[in-house]
Each structure stands twice: as C-alpha cells, then as structure tokens.
Amino acid sequence: MDKEMFEKGLKMRRAVLGAEYVDKSIASADDFNMPMQELVTSYCWGEIWNRPGLPPKTRSLLNLAMLTALNRPHELKLHVRGALNNGVTREEIMEVFLQTAIYCGVPAAIDAFRNAREVFAEVDKK
Predict the structure, then answer these.
(1) I need a labelling partner for 91 at 20 to 30 A (CA). Which of 1, 50, 119, 120 fits?
(2) Contact at 8 Å (CB) between 18 and 85?
(3) How far is CA 124 from CA 46, 66, 69, 84, 117, in A?
(4) Does pTM surpass 0.85?
(5) Which stretches of the chain drop beneath a pLDDT of 50?
C-alpha cells in the first residue's frame, strides 16, 4: 500500500464523509476487511477524488446518480451526507433523483428520495 496516497485519500474521505464516520470505519476494520478499507481510501479517495478534472461537488452529484442506478441505499445515504458536506443543495439532490427516475427507473428514484429524506432528518436534528 502506498502510504502517501492512503494519507491523501484519508484526508479527502474525512472531508467528504466526516472524520467520525471514516475513523470509526477504519478503527473497526479487522484482518478480513482492512485491505478493503485501504483499497477504498487509497484508490477511490486518494487517486480518483483528488484528481483535478472535477470538483468534489460534481463528483458527489455523479455518485448520487450512480448509487441510485445501482440501488445501493447504504452508500447512497452516506454520499447524500457527503454531497451536503461538498456544498450540494437539497434542490440539486432532488434534481439528480428526478433525472435518475427517467434513466434508472422510477422505483430506484423513489428509494433515493426516501433515503435522502432520512439523511435530511438526521442532519436537521443536529
């Protein structure tokens, strides 16, 4: 594992998803899933999220659409929170989900709206 890329990815991952969530994920990793934590942190967050071609806000919008299409509710909720951290508005999130209704299917978009509302409710409590 490239330690420098891991640290670069860890910084970005914490900025987007929140240090508490990221640190808990890494601290709770064991011998079985630590290699996945290292891969995701180094490759996804270090190599890709740090590329200069797209700002984090745009990457968040793309992730919301892709995770809706893939029907990955746990990751979608995580990235809704990350999108908010990256300056994506609730209106922009709504527009992404409306777009996914056309290209990914209405049921996928309905689930995405439901999951986002759960995140919004959690955020609004704080």
Answers:
(1) 50
(2) yes
(3) 30, 25, 26, 12, 10
(4) yes
(5) none
